[in-house]
Design brief:
This protein is α+β, with helices and mostly antiparallel strands. Helices cover 53% and strands 33% of the residues. Helix 2 runs antiparallel to helix 3.
Protein backbone atom coordinates (compact mmCIF):
# COMPACT_ATOMS: atom_id res chain seq x y z
CA UNK A 1 0.00 0.00 0.00
CA UNK A 2 1.38 3.40 -0.81
CA UNK A 3 2.16 5.84 2.04
CA UNK A 4 -0.40 8.37 0.84
CA UNK A 5 -3.20 5.79 0.99
CA UNK A 6 -2.11 4.71 4.48
CA UNK A 7 -2.25 8.32 5.72
CA UNK A 8 -5.70 8.77 4.15
CA UNK A 9 -6.91 5.56 5.80
CA UNK A 10 -5.52 6.63 9.19
CA UNK A 11 -6.78 10.21 8.97
CA UNK A 12 -10.25 9.78 7.48
CA UNK A 13 -11.60 6.26 7.17
CA UNK A 14 -10.75 4.87 10.60
CA UNK A 15 -12.16 7.86 12.52
CA UNK A 16 -15.32 7.74 10.37
CA UNK A 17 -15.78 4.04 11.14
CA UNK A 18 -15.22 4.71 14.86
CA UNK A 19 -17.78 7.55 14.75
CA UNK A 20 -20.36 5.34 13.02
CA UNK A 21 -19.79 2.51 15.52
CA UNK A 22 -20.06 4.94 18.46
CA UNK A 23 -23.28 6.46 17.12
CA UNK A 24 -24.77 3.01 16.54
CA UNK A 25 -23.87 1.89 20.07
CA UNK A 26 -25.40 5.09 21.49
CA UNK A 27 -28.62 4.58 19.53
CA UNK A 28 -28.92 0.94 20.62
CA UNK A 29 -28.35 1.97 24.26
CA UNK A 30 -31.05 4.67 23.97
CA UNK A 31 -33.46 2.21 22.31
CA UNK A 32 -32.88 -0.37 25.07
CA UNK A 33 -33.39 2.25 27.79
CA UNK A 34 -36.62 3.49 26.15
CA UNK A 35 -37.96 -0.06 25.90
CA UNK A 36 -37.15 -0.74 29.55
CA UNK A 37 -38.84 2.53 30.62
CA UNK A 38 -41.98 1.62 28.64
CA UNK A 39 -42.01 -1.90 30.12
CA UNK A 40 -41.68 -0.49 33.65
CA UNK A 41 -44.45 2.04 32.96
CA UNK A 42 -46.69 -0.74 31.62
CA UNK A 43 -46.20 -2.96 34.69
CA UNK A 44 -46.54 -0.12 37.23
CA UNK A 45 -49.56 1.51 35.55
CA UNK A 46 -51.52 -1.77 35.25
CA UNK A 47 -50.89 -2.47 38.93
CA UNK A 48 -51.93 1.06 39.91
CA UNK A 49 -55.05 0.89 37.72
CA UNK A 50 -56.10 -2.41 39.34
CA UNK A 51 -55.57 -1.21 42.91
CA UNK A 52 -57.07 2.24 42.36
CA UNK A 53 -60.16 0.90 40.58
CA UNK A 54 -60.93 -1.31 43.57
CA UNK A 55 -60.45 1.68 45.91
CA UNK A 56 -62.74 3.92 43.81
CA UNK A 57 -65.56 1.39 43.73
CA UNK A 58 -65.41 -0.02 47.28
CA UNK A 59 -66.91 1.46 50.43
CA UNK A 60 -68.97 0.58 53.48
CA UNK A 61 -72.03 2.55 54.54
CA UNK A 62 -70.63 3.46 57.96
CA UNK A 63 -67.24 4.55 56.61
CA UNK A 64 -68.09 5.74 53.09
CA UNK A 65 -66.64 9.22 53.64
CA UNK A 66 -63.35 7.78 54.91
CA UNK A 67 -63.18 4.98 52.28
CA UNK A 68 -63.98 7.19 49.30
CA UNK A 69 -61.95 10.09 50.70
CA UNK A 70 -58.91 7.82 50.79
CA UNK A 71 -59.58 6.81 47.18
CA UNK A 72 -59.30 10.50 46.19
CA UNK A 73 -55.57 10.32 46.99
CA UNK A 74 -55.22 8.09 43.92
CA UNK A 75 -56.62 10.73 41.50
CA UNK A 76 -55.40 13.84 39.73
CA UNK A 77 -56.59 16.67 37.49
CA UNK A 78 -60.16 17.25 36.37
CA UNK A 79 -61.11 13.68 37.27
CA UNK A 80 -60.19 14.35 40.91
CA UNK A 81 -62.58 17.32 40.92
CA UNK A 82 -65.42 15.41 39.23
CA UNK A 83 -65.01 12.40 41.54
CA UNK A 84 -64.97 14.65 44.63
CA UNK A 85 -68.23 16.30 43.55
CA UNK A 86 -69.85 12.92 42.84
CA UNK A 87 -68.91 11.27 46.13
CA UNK A 88 -69.70 14.31 48.27
CA UNK A 89 -72.92 15.21 46.48
CA UNK A 90 -74.38 11.77 45.77
CA UNK A 91 -72.53 8.63 46.81
CA UNK A 92 -71.66 9.33 50.46
CA UNK A 93 -75.07 10.81 51.36
CA UNK A 94 -76.88 7.91 49.64
CA UNK A 95 -74.61 5.31 51.21
CA UNK A 96 -75.39 6.64 54.67
CA UNK A 97 -79.09 7.21 54.01
CA UNK A 98 -79.73 3.82 52.38
CA UNK A 99 -77.15 1.82 54.38
CA UNK A 100 -75.41 0.99 51.09
CA UNK A 101 -72.04 -0.70 50.65
CA UNK A 102 -70.14 -1.62 47.51
CA UNK A 103 -67.20 -3.81 46.67
CA UNK A 104 -65.16 -3.59 43.47
CA UNK A 105 -63.27 -6.55 42.06
CA UNK A 106 -60.95 -6.37 39.07
CA UNK A 107 -61.46 -9.38 36.81
CA UNK A 108 -58.66 -8.45 34.41
CA UNK A 109 -56.51 -5.55 33.27
CA UNK A 110 -54.35 -4.91 30.22
CA UNK A 111 -52.15 -2.08 29.07
CA UNK A 112 -53.40 -0.18 26.03
CA UNK A 113 -50.43 2.19 25.91
CA UNK A 114 -47.61 3.15 28.25
CA UNK A 115 -45.03 5.90 28.31
CA UNK A 116 -42.80 6.82 31.25
CA UNK A 117 -45.30 9.46 32.52
CA UNK A 118 -48.67 8.56 30.89
CA UNK A 119 -50.55 5.30 30.44
CA UNK A 120 -53.93 3.89 29.45
CA UNK A 121 -55.19 0.61 30.91
CA UNK A 122 -58.34 -1.34 30.07
CA UNK A 123 -59.86 -2.76 33.27
CA UNK A 124 -62.68 -5.30 33.49
CA UNK A 125 -64.43 -4.88 36.81
CA UNK A 126 -67.30 -6.31 38.79
CA UNK A 127 -68.96 -4.13 41.45
CA UNK A 128 -71.25 -5.75 43.99
CA UNK A 129 -73.64 -3.37 45.77
CA UNK A 130 -75.67 -4.12 48.87
CA UNK A 131 -78.50 -1.85 50.03
CA UNK A 132 -79.60 -2.44 53.63
CA UNK A 133 -80.56 -6.09 54.06
CA UNK A 134 -81.45 -6.65 50.39
CA UNK A 135 -79.79 -9.23 48.19
CA UNK A 136 -76.52 -7.92 46.67
CA UNK A 137 -76.51 -6.93 43.01
CA UNK A 138 -73.48 -7.29 40.75
CA UNK A 139 -72.61 -5.12 37.79
CA UNK A 140 -69.84 -6.03 35.35
CA UNK A 141 -68.23 -3.38 33.18
CA UNK A 142 -65.09 -2.38 31.33
CA UNK A 143 -63.34 0.90 32.05
CA UNK A 144 -60.62 2.77 30.19
CA UNK A 145 -58.37 4.08 32.96
CA UNK A 146 -56.01 6.92 32.06
CA UNK A 147 -53.09 7.46 34.44
CA UNK A 148 -50.44 10.13 34.80
CA UNK A 149 -47.24 9.70 36.76
CA UNK A 150 -47.00 12.43 39.39
CA UNK A 151 -43.73 12.21 41.28
CA UNK A 152 -43.27 8.50 41.80
CA UNK A 153 -47.00 7.60 41.84
CA UNK A 154 -49.41 6.66 39.05
CA UNK A 155 -52.63 8.64 39.55
CA UNK A 156 -55.90 8.26 37.66
CA UNK A 157 -56.71 11.24 35.45
CA UNK A 158 -59.55 9.59 33.52
CA UNK A 159 -62.04 6.79 34.22
CA UNK A 160 -64.27 6.15 31.21
CA UNK A 161 -66.68 3.22 30.75
CA UNK A 162 -66.32 1.44 27.42
Amino acid sequence: MNPRMTRLLAAVVLPAVALILGATAGYLKWEDSSRRDADRARIESVSAARDSTVALLSYRAATADKDLGAARDRLTGAFLDAYTQLINGVVIPEAKKENMSASGEVLGAASVSAEPDHAVVLVMVNQTTTVAAQKPTATASSVRVTLDKVGDRWLISGFDPV
